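[audit] Reproducing an earlier prediction to check determinism. Same input, same settings, fresh worker. If the tokens differ from the archived copy the diff job will pick it up downstream; this log only records the rerun itself.
[audit] input (319 residues):
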Amino acid sequence: MADKTISESSETLPAAPAAFDLNTAAWLGAKAEGVEIAALTNTAKHPGLPDAVPVLLRRGTSPGIESLATLFEPYRQFPVRKAGQAVAQTFEAFTNLTLRHQTEHSAIFANMDWKKPTLTTIVDYHELAAGHPNFGKHRVHYAFPLSDEWQKWVAGDGEKMDQGAFAWFLEDRVAELSSPTDEEKLQYERDFATTIATPAQLVELSRGLQVNVESKVKASTTLQSGEGQIAWEESHNGVDGKPLKVPGIFMLNIAPFFMGDKVRIPVRLRYRPAGGKVTWFYQIYRPDQFITQHVRDVLAEARRVTNLPTFEGTPEMAA
């Protein structure tokens, strides 16, 4: 369609009013309808804000200023910034997600709580060079998945059990026991002044406890080797009819994390005779040291793979 050309009308224009003062001009301007895009300047230089933002000036009988963002927001095609927390189920997924989103300012934090260690990447962490703060709302999180076996040992740590319950506990967990190495035997028997048990000795102890589960304790002594010795009133004291020897320590060979590497951890074996009965419990020796070292090794691997700074601790809460 051809463009329309607006030409001057041949009709006679109306005559200007005889009195056209400034008040009349102001009144006519206020009555004029229309909108205009203008810039609202950050004259006070508030930190973190741009120098100017576009606004919509509305004229007419109800003049005002309106944000352009509210007009455009319904038509947004993607968010203004990344936010939210991705949860990785494996360490490999954690590093891959971090590599996918990281910036030069990203950082990794490790919560060193040995009972529930975690890694968290803050993708939009505070800037380095200029020191500008950032939102810290885009994160990648990895909670070390504790194995079922390890959780059961930790749950029972220090918990008192009667003789029957403890006997069955040892039987059920025999696959996680290990014979000590020569070095472990020398170190722990010296440090704890007691003997260290093999899995076979613990199984023998467990079966002996089952035989005497209803028997009353006749005597409890500590041998020169550091072992305990328990005798019962009935003649069948042990599987072979002899008093049972109780070692003071044994070794766990267990993977604390699901599908992770196994670690060797000493466990102290304790019992308390009272009123003809024996109460049993065990104490995992310094589990925090073994778990903390593993988390530090994984953190070092994350630092190597991502080339990001790492910190032991928890990040700031996102505003």
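[audit] rerun output stored. Observation attached for the diff report: Residues 63-143+286-319 form one domain.
[audit] end
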